[in-house]
Write a structure and sequence with these properties.
The protein has 344 residues and is mainly alpha-helical. It contains nine helices and no strands. It starts with 11 loop residues before the first helix and ends with a helix.
Length: 344
């Protein structure tokens, strides 16, 4: 019998099973790693979902807050609108209606202010010369004269020419307070210059004719008619102020319209005051409707029974021909602002 040969090699089945074990182990490792990755992925997904939920919650909260803020803002806006509607009338009255930022330090740096002051001096001088010679009893003459003066100086200063109008412009904030005071000074200087010119001619005429020079007389209010004359000055000034305020904006587009309305207002005031004073009370020559010219007319008394009596008469004259006309002018300007709400 032949002997079987021994071999040192392992059986094939044994090697295959070892490989299978190794492969199985690797698979298990892979599966464990895959499971870990899946767990990590799930954890990440959960975290992302949580973050998304938190972000959504925050966004919802922010939207709610913004919505509430918008609601609060809209409510405040509605309240402010309602308040503005209620107070719009007051705001328009006291709103600033001029663009220039003028002060004592800056106004003289503008070249236009010198032209404006020159226009006020010249225009008021011409007006005072006419009033001091012709008086306020020729309304038609006064209309065309004032129209010519406005056309001449309107582009320079607005042809205010009257403290009644100046105070009204300041009170309704159509011009600055600084400009207003400069206009008042210019009007006083102009009225004084007109008075000097008229007085000089009258003195020369009086010297030639040998008579005494006299300006047109102005009847001072007696004790019984003091408040009548004072009210007439107030009423006439209110008419002048109303028409001038209505004409003020037209000066930028048409000087003819501006001059016609302003001159028409003064003419109407003269007619109304004259008719009321003469036809009702029989008074003549007792109103002026221009405080600057009135002061040049020597309305202030120079003699009385004692110093206290003289001071009292001076105060009464100032109230009648200076204070009350200016108050009337302010009332007229505010009435013009009130009328703006009813423009077509």
């Amino acid at each position: 019998m032949a002997k079987s040969k021994k071999s040192g090699k392992k059986p094939k089945t044994t090697r295959i099973s070892a490989k299978d074990d190794e492969t199985f182990e690797k698979k298990e490792v892979r599966e464990e790693m895959t499971e870990k990755k899946e767990v990590k992925t799930e954890t990440k997904a959960e975290k992302v979902a949580e973050k998304d939920q938190e972000a959504a919650k925050k966004e919802t909260a922010e939207k709610a807050e913004s919505g509430s803020e918008k609601a609060i803002a809209s409510a405040k806006a509605e309240k402010s609108e309602k308040k503005a509607e209620k107070c719009g009338f007051c705001k328009r009255f006291f709103a600033k209606k001029y663009e220039e930022q003028e002060s004592v330090l800056t106004i003289f740096k503008q070249k236009k202010i010198w032209g404006a002051l020159l226009g006020e001096v010249f225009g008021t001088m011409m007006l005072s010369m006419v009033i001091l010679t012709l008086g306020l009893y020729q309304p038609l003459y006064m209309f065309f004269i004032l129209l010519a003066i406005v056309a001449a100086v309107g582009k320079l200063s607005g042809a205010v020419l009257n403290p009644i109008n100046t105070v009204g412009l300041m009170a309704t904030r159509r011009i600055s307070v600084v400009r207003g005071f400069l206009y008042l000074l210019a009007q006083l200087v102009g009225a004084w210059a007109g008075f000097l010119v008229v007085a000089a001619f009258m003195n020369v005429a009086a010297g030639i004719s040998g008579t005494e020079a006299e300006l047109p007389g102005m009847t001072m209010a007696t004790e019984g008619y003091y408040w009548v004359v004072t009210f007439l000055e107030f009423l006439g000034a209110a008419i002048v102020g109303f028409f001038f305020a209505r004409a003020w904006e037209a000066r930028k587009t048409s000087l003819v319209t501006f001059g016609a309305v302003a001159a028409g207002g003064l003419t109407l005031a003269m007619v109304v005051v004259y008719l009321l004073s003469y036809q009702t009370f029989g008074l003549t020559g007792n109103f002026m409707l221009n405080p600057a010219v009135a002061l040049m007319y020597q309305i202030l008394p120079t003699s009385a029974d004692g110093v206290s009596e003289l001071l009292l008469e001076i105060v009464k004259a100032l109230f009648t021909y200076v204070v009350f006309p200016m108050v009337g002018g302010v009332v007229g300007f505010y009435l013009a602002d009130l009328a703006d709400n009813f423009d077509i």
